[in-house]
Amino acid sequence: MNLDHMYESMGISPRVLGFAKDIETGLKDRFEAIDGRAEYNQLKVVKAMQDNRVSDIHFAATTGYGYNDLGRDTLEQVFAGVFGTESALVRPQLISGTHALHIALSGNLRPGDELLSPNGKPYDTLEEVIGIRESTGSLKEYGVSYRQVDLKEDGTFDFAGIEKAIHEKTKLMTIQRSKGYAARPTFSVEQIGELIAFAKKIKPDLICMVDNCYGEFVETIEPSEVGADMVVGSLIKNPGGGLAPIGGYIAGRRDCIDRASFRLSAPGLGREVGASLGLNQSFYQGLFLSPTVVAGALKGAVFAANLYERLGFLVVPGGREERHDIIQSITFGSPEGVIAFCQGIQAAAPVDSFVTPEPWDMPGYDAPVIMAAGAFVQGSSIELSADAPIKPPYAVYFQGGLTWYHAKLGILMSLQKLWEKGLCSLPDQY
Ligand SMILES: *Cc1c(COP(=O)(O)O)cnc(C)c1O
Question: What atom in ligand 1 is closest to the CA of residue 248?
Fold first, then answer.
């Protein structure tokens, strides 16, 4: 069977395939650039592993308190090497990205301090961590105040507003690299560096933290290389490479990471405790694969952007735009469009391909939400996944794909579903 027949046997019609082939042919240069960055980042990861003399002894499981967990301590040095920082915490006890951000914030803020967001409202789950929405145990309950400066109309930082917002109590600035599920551009590492330099000129001891979720290995430098005191993320996104079954990381300046460690375990214990159980090999191997996994996800995002843009849908980022994270949004303008898209992504999954996702009233959301995820790790969004709130403008957010070929299949399947339901038409020549 040749490749076209193989796609056909999976339900992709020749017309959809023909159209997609022409889109893909036009992306050679983009894909080459993505591969170039992956190659660089692969070397960066291997070098950090070699510099720290990673050996199979580091894959051994530890239990109980986890004193002298050599694998854990070395892994943290490897992460510090990759991110160019003095120190790092990389733990299965950091349950998720939100938890890692919470530990980084609450470890470094004290009553009377103020937290500043220079990019408007932060990621949804941080609203309750900070206390923007009333929440038990929030930073607000502990006497940490919060201020935000909204982005300017064009999506750039409001430097004048930020200068005015920084005062004597401003202790920490939290910068969100990825747009997440907001309608604004994602920041490049260079832009983040400019902001940090600006803020530190006003207040040299301001702690600058970057929510690095979805951004790792998209560029060849990380925010910690342009002045960030801490970078924080989830291991079931980019840097876990699809193999980490749980976990988060905080990398940065030694004093900041130490304070976070005393919050994660207990004052006096800090980083000395916390068994890695049997997870170290997955963490090392996931980090090792991460640059190429991220490259696959990026190719999927660029392919989808160009394919759906060509069909007349609004896509963010645009097909030709430079990428700074792995998230792609596509606006379909109708509930049927986002539902068909998500059902296509699900139908292409290696796990649970036989289930049909439907919108449901998820707690904490003001509209029904549909989610497509056929993942090996629950909630993993470095694996091909999509979700959309069923409300105008009816945009779907999708990300991930452990391999480019799987991301491609998912996107072809989504287009197939939309086309079969008459929700889009293919150009005449196909
Ligand atoms: C995913 C994400 C988070 C939260 O991570 P979870 O692991 O889902 O808790 C925070 N910020 C951004 C920008 C994210 O994309």
Answer: 7
Percent of the chain with pLDDT over 70: 100
Whether 200 and 247 have beta carbons less than 8 Å apart is answered as no
Residue 336 is classified by DSSP as: H
CA of 42 relative to ligand 1 center, distance in Å: 24
pLDDT for 364 equals 65
Q: What is the dihedral of CA 330, 340, 297, 429, to 10 degrees?
A: -80
Q: The pTM is what?
A: 0.96
Contacts of 253 (CB under 8 A, 6+ apart): 85, 86, 87, 229, 230
Q: How far apart are CA 422 and CA 430, in angstroms?
A: 15
Cβ atoms of 293 and 382 within 8 Å: the answer is yes
Backbone angle region of 422, left / alpha / beta, with phi > 0 → left and psi within -120 to 50 → alpha: left
CB-CB contact of 219 with 275 (8 Å):
no
Ligand 1 centroid–CA 38 distance in Å is: 23
What pLDDT does 430 receive? Answer: 86
Q: Does residue 331 register a pLDDT over 80?
A: yes
> Which atom of ligand 1 sits closest to the CA of residue 178?
13
Q: How far is the CA of 236 from the centre of ligand 1 (A)?
A: 10
Structure tokens at 422: 């008459």
CB count within 10 Å of CB 154 equals 7
Cross-strand bridge partners of residue 174: 209
Q: 122: which residues sit within 8 A by CB, 6+ positions away?
A: 130, 132, 148, 174, 176, 211
Q: Yes or no: say if 232 and 212 are a contact pair by the CB < 8 Å rule.
A: yes
CB-based contact 249:233 (threshold 8 Å): yes
Buried b or exposed e, range 94-109, using 16+ CB within 10 angstroms: bbbbbbbbbbbbbbbb
Q: Which tokens is 63 given?
A: 């239990």
What residue ranges in 164-271 does DSSP mark as E strands? 170-176, 207-211, 230-234, 248-252
